[in-house]
TrEMBL record:
Organism: Astatotilapia calliptera
Name listed for the protein in its UniProt record: Phosphatidylethanolamine binding protein 4
Gene3D superfamilies given in the database record: PEBP-like
SUPFAM superfamilies noted in UniProt: PEBP-like
Family annotation (InterPro entries): PEBP, PEBP-like_sf, PEBP_euk, Phosphatidylethanolamine-bd_CS
Coiled-coil stretches: none
Length: 211
């Protein structure tokens, strides 16, 4: 009898621990389903080819490591709930510094982007050693603003670009640039600070979550 009681106690204890054991597994399954749903939407060859360089952008329920369309089930979260994502660049050089830019080239819509580029995030002086570990340790020139595409404006591209910052360069915005996020002359900014070509790029597409 004591042996049977012990076995029953062990079975009960195992059942009690099942939720804790299975939770991480279910989390991984859900994450995989979200990514599969995102990939099922068709990207144009131009949009699909934008991403290069192993840049990774991590939101609470979505790990973005390739060009994709945000699935409908997550569009409200990315616009209304989630804060600035974690950004990871595995090949960052520890002794270098970087500039991270996030822009919308489709404001207010892709057919007539009269407000492009819309600056969503700009961080400079990012330490390569931190970026390699998925941390953004630098100077924020423009705080993160989530994607909020207007209703009925179609899909917008949200582009992340990572540049190596030239040694001893003091990257900044002009007073005019600081006054508005929209109509940012992104190319002039790149040229002004000799940033060159980005070492890594990533983008996702999303539309207004109510559409």
């Amino acid at each position: 009898m004591p042996h049977c009681i012990d076995e029953q106690a062990e079975q009960i204890e195992t059942l009690l621990h099942l939720p804790a054991i299975l939770a991480p597994i279910f989390g991984l399954i859900l994450l995989g389903l979200f990514h599969t749903e995102a990939k099922q939407h068709t990207l144009s060859s131009q949009d699909a080819s934008f991403c290069h360089g192993e840049l990774e952008v991590i939101y609470p329920e979505l790990d973005i490591y390739e060009c994709l369309i945000i699935p409908k089930s997550l569009r409200e979260q990315v616009s209304q709930v989630w804060k600035a994502p974690q950004v990871y660049f595995s090949t960052a050089q520890k002794k270098k510094t970087y500039v991270l830019v996030m822009v919308d080239p489709d404001a207010p819509n892709r057919s007539k982007p009269t407000s492009a580029y819309w600056r969503h995030w700009l961080v400079v002086d990012i330490q390569g050693s931190a970026l390699k570990e998925g941390q953004i340790e630098g100077t924020s020139l423009t705080d993160y603003k989530p994607p909020t595409p207007p209703s009925n404006s179609g899909f917008h591209r949200y582009q992340f670009m990572l540049f190596e910052q030239p040694p001893d360069a003091s990257v900044s915005l002009t007073e005019q640039e600081e006054a508005s996020r929209g109509k940012w002359d992104f190319q002039a900014f790149i040229t002004s600070f000799d940033l060159g070509e980005p070492v890594a790029t990533l983008q996702f597409l999303t539309q207004n979550y109510k559409d």
